[in-house]
Amino acid sequence: MPSSLREVMSRFATGVVVVTVGGEHVHGMTANAFTSVSLDPPLVLCCVAHSAVMHGALSASARFAVSVMAADQERVARHFADKKRPLGAAQFTSVDWRPGPLSGAPLISGALGWLECELTQSHDSGDHTIFIGSVLEAGRGDDAPGLLFHNGAFGSVEGADLAQRRVRTLQ
Ligand SMILES: Cc1cc2nc3c(=O)[nH]c(=O)nc-3n(C[C@H](O)[C@H](O)[C@H](O)COP(=O)(O)OP(=O)(O)OC[C@H]3O[C@@H](n4cnc5c(N)ncnc54)[C@H](O)[C@@H]3O)c2cc1C
């Protein structure tokens, strides 16, 4: 069953984010199990494996940040999913970033958007924990193609093509 769930879910195309925490537990992790939960109040969630270093870092932090990856940031997404990367601040030396003013968590330069969040709830579910954050601040980067994850591979969402198909509620 787990392998068939993985196979089916790999056909569900998602965007890609890097979740970060700052301070004593500074850390970053690539994630696609990320979504908005509520607009009013603004809430988002991210599912993190119990085995991930990020699980302990998030559990110990009151605030975190999310950077939405652009199509040209595949290298960054691969870096924060690479188990051979160094721990702590050293993992950020190969990327441009700035500290989030409200969270202190690294905001990755060149991202399509950023969120700074207060951790409000966490729910253990299976081998992951669902971390829910209340959005404190949101910022947009350039209108560039987004990084896509589909069928176990990175791709890109071409903005020009999608502009023709814009959904009315988002206009
Ligand atoms: C497109 C994509 C989407 C993904 N989405 C998600 C998602 O939504 N949720 C999710 O949970 N995962 C997701 N992953 C997987 C996740 O990005 C990787 O598993 C990532 O490596 C986890 O990061 P981590 O730092 O938290 O943990 P790890 O990779 O386990 O650890 C990071 C670093 O810590 C070191 N380390 C670990 N334990 C110790 C120790 N005891 N002592 C010393 N050093 C140690 C490791 O060697 C490594 O350098 C995704 C991956 C990809 C490619």
Distance separating the two termini: 40 Å
The helix fraction, in percent, is 10-25%
CATH topology: Pnp Oxidase, Chain A
Enumerate the spans where pLDDT stays under 50 for 5 or more consecutive residues.
none
- Catalogue the ligands: flavin-adenine dinucleotide
In CATH, the architecture is Roll
In DSSP terms, counting alpha (H) and pi (I) runs of 4 or more, how many helices?
4
What is the number of beta strands?
12
* Strands in their spatial order, largest beta sheet: 3-2-6-9-10-5-4
- The CATH superfamily appears as Electron Transport, Fmn-binding Protein, Chain A
Q: Largest beta sheet, briefly?
A: 7 strands, antiparallel
| Average predicted confidence as pLDDT | 94
Radius of gyration based on Cα positions:
16 Å
Number of domains: 1
